[in-house]
Write a structure and sequence with these properties.
heterodimer; A: mainly alpha; two-stranded antiparallel ribbon; 2 strands; 67% helix; globular; B: alpha+beta; Penicillin-binding protein 2a (Domain 2); Beta-lactamase; seven-stranded mixed sheet; five-stranded antiparallel sheet; 21 strands; 32% helix; elongated; binds zinc ion
Amino acid sequence: MREQRSIFDGIDWVMVGLFLILVFMGWINIYAAVFNEEHQSILDSTQRYGKQLFFIVFAIFVGLVIMLIDGKFFSTFALPIYGLTMLLLVVVLFTARDVAGARSWIDIGAFKLQPSEFAKYATSLALASYLSTINIRMDELKTKLVATLILVIPAGLILLQNDTGSMLVFGAFALVMYREGLSGNFLLFGLAMAVLFIFALLFTPLTMLIILGSIGLVVFLFQRRKTWKLGLSIGAVLMVLMGFVYSVDYIFNEVLEPHQQVRINVLLGKEDDPKGAGYNVNQSKIAIGSGGFTGKGFLKGTQTKYDFVPEQTTDFIFCTVGEEWGFLGTFVVITLFAALILRILFIAERQRSAFTRIYGYCVASIFLFHFMINIGMTIGLMPVIGIPLPFFSYGGSSLLGFTILLFTFIKLDGYRLQQLR
Amino acid sequence: MSFQSKHTDRMYVVMGIVLLISLTFLGRLFYVQVIDKSYQLSADNNVLRYETEFPARGRIYDRDGRLLVYNEAAYDLMIIPRQATSIDTTELCRILNISKEDFIRKMDKAKAYSWRKPTIFEKQISTITYAELQEKLYRFSGFFVQKRTLRKYPEPVAAHLLGYVGEASQTKLDEDPYYKRGDYVGISGLEKSYETELRGQKGVKVIMVDVFNRPKGSYKEGKYDTVAVAGKTLHASIDAELQAYGELLMQNKTGGIVALEPSTGEILALVSAPSFDPNLLVGRVRSDNYRMLQADTLKPLFNRALMSEQNPPGSTFKLINALIGQQVGVLNENTTYRCPRGYVSGSFRMGCHDHRSPLNLRESIQHSCNAYYGNVFRNIIDHTGKPWEGFAIWRKHVVSFGLGTKFNTDLPIEYAGIVPTNEFYDKHYGKNHWKSLTIISMAIGQGELGTTPLQLANMTAAIANRGYYYPPHLVTAIDDEPIKNRFTEKQFTTIDPKYFEPVIDGMAMVFEQGGTGYRSRHDSIVMCGKTGTAQNPHGEDHSIFICFAPKDDPKIALAVFVENGGGGSKYAAPIASLMVEKYLTDTVARPNLEKPILEANLIDPSKNVAP
Ligand SMILES: [Zn+2]
């Protein structure tokens, strides 16, 4: 028994089970979204569900391969993997074709690969590797700078590919750094800036000056000692904030494309445009809302099938869940995702190795960010940022990317138990 | 190895965030899916149908408020193949009057496009068919009728400038998401250049239909509906009567006429011959007729008034040389030259015809003397001692009349014409290795020059205005809102107004005894004109005439270009003179001048009766 160590020893079957359920449900919904009378075979390789089935089989195969790799491999080769992936991102910039305005695909024979999906993985390994080095302390400035650099390089390269959605995902790593000791003030500061950002979009710079000025005045008046020094420092903070407001205003008006401006305006409620930029969200809400409590039934959805909802197999796959399975379906999916993320966090916390714990937090943060943005967007709580729903959305690169992320963690966790024996 | 992690309690914050997001989503979903009933459709699996409401395309009126283009209702029978189950095919075929084979063919075509998206099954069904179908439509699930509009032209004129509409091409669909398959879009003429104004804004009506395709009313009280906005009305500058008369005069000929109002740059008439009835390019007959017109060797679809740029302006261009000569100081109204039946320099000789000699500036225009302009042109080019410098100055003045450039008028296609540059001659003869004599054919408007009829008309307007013009254009107001843009900005030529008088006097003398337009004179209207002949290496020369009237308060300026019409006085001058008469007096009282023009046939010379 001791000599015969199976690769399945120490595996957390809860995570594997959740993975399999989510992938299967995703495939069922892709099938429903594209289903029509012309192509009925589930193995039809010309249809998206046929292709997705192939991707799923391939992803599971890759998951098995990861189980065979030695547990030390990931921490040892974290930095080379990171370097290689960054190189790939640079190559993409020069070689890839434009697909819908974004340059992020590499053609490999008949398959297209999206390196940005793997950049998340490489960055997670690199960040975990760096932060788990002995004597690294999060409260040192150097640590913050190096950690930020590890995130900014891939984020910047992906932004250059015009793939804003994937770029934003790197913001999720802030949660990892918080867990490792980054002051909560940074998160609060980020949140405050986000609020200021939204206000800056809602109001004109002049209004903002009046609002911030009044707040500054009130703060000043309520101080017991009204010294010149206090007045000057409030004034300085005010200047910095207004500088931020003006740059938001400038970026919005001069840098963003008109369609991006409209999208933001619609989300902020400044523009009501149910047939234009708000179209996707409205159609998506109609589809989900029309599902009711129990849904219309498998393959009985009408809104998603009649092509009213665009990108229904990729970014808006959650609509099909909502329409055909109703609130029961969406409840199950949300619960499964929450369970998976919580399970990852729980298991991360029981690690002895800092590398595995930090890596686990990276995986959980990435899943959480995708989950929050993607589902939030389909029900009108988040802006329309095109990022996939893990394991659900159609697409080989993203499925493979998420599978590798998760199975590496499962492997690292299992490795811990193997070591104990 | 054991490592006690700090900050373990932060796990709870992160887990709290996960739970908060999940609960927010569940709350929102519970509201959208369970509490807010407005999103739910009734249990029998109703379907939402998105009906596009097509706005009426804008009408087009002429300058006197005559209707040129309007819309007529038409109905397309649409199909959503996926919903078309168990219908009475025989009955439908009977109503539509098509065979069962036709039915299957159309159905297959629709299925090949999409099972779920509406496709046109039968285009533009008649009103009677529509009435019968409307009653029984509930029996044919998957079918519905889409209201459309078709363009109608009450007067069969001005096909080139009005343009036509047709179904949006794949390219158009790809580049502009506003258009869906089967939508109409302006393809040429005003229909194209004012597409955004004319098309209006499509509306959408979301209605619920049951499984039997019966409308069950508006969805969510029309919350997601948008109202169609009708297209705007265009007020065109053309005079439909003058346009029709121009087309009549040009019958059985090829060429173009452009008439402008000098004080505004508005195009009064824009004739390209041969023309065609714009109603040919509407509706079900469009593609057949289009193929026919495209195959025609006379190229009726080609807008000669704007696109024929290879032909030189001929002697009409002498006016420009006369103006530039005065401006650069090598010529005044009293300058005289002798004409020994041509211009001679060394062994070079450029012939001229028989006329009195010597003559002054005014007479040089009246008699269109080649020798006079050989001298003027060489003096202009050589006046600084360096021909390439003189040429550059000359060119700058020429271009200020709008020659060799585009006006960017409000028609989609327009050519720039040709005024050669220094670089052109440098390339041909070597850097500055050319002299005034090398390029002397431009003295009399031949050689490398190329002008469109539109440019000649504008040049005439600039002369009539004594030194300025407004860029020629066709639309004067959109929805009763007068235009205010680059077309209402005065463009000045580089010639001093005082130099125009002797030239204009000369143009008036063209219609006097001995002048080249004497035969086309009018007793009471003082016209100013100039003949031209564009040398044509491929056959009979082209006949050109430019003209404006009245002399002291110009109301109309025009250029007439008749292909293979010989000298300018033969066809072009009478046509121009008749157009002026028609516009200024509303009638034509010179049958002796008119009849031979109407009878002339330059397309089939065997039927020609020379005037
Ligand atoms: Zn002469």
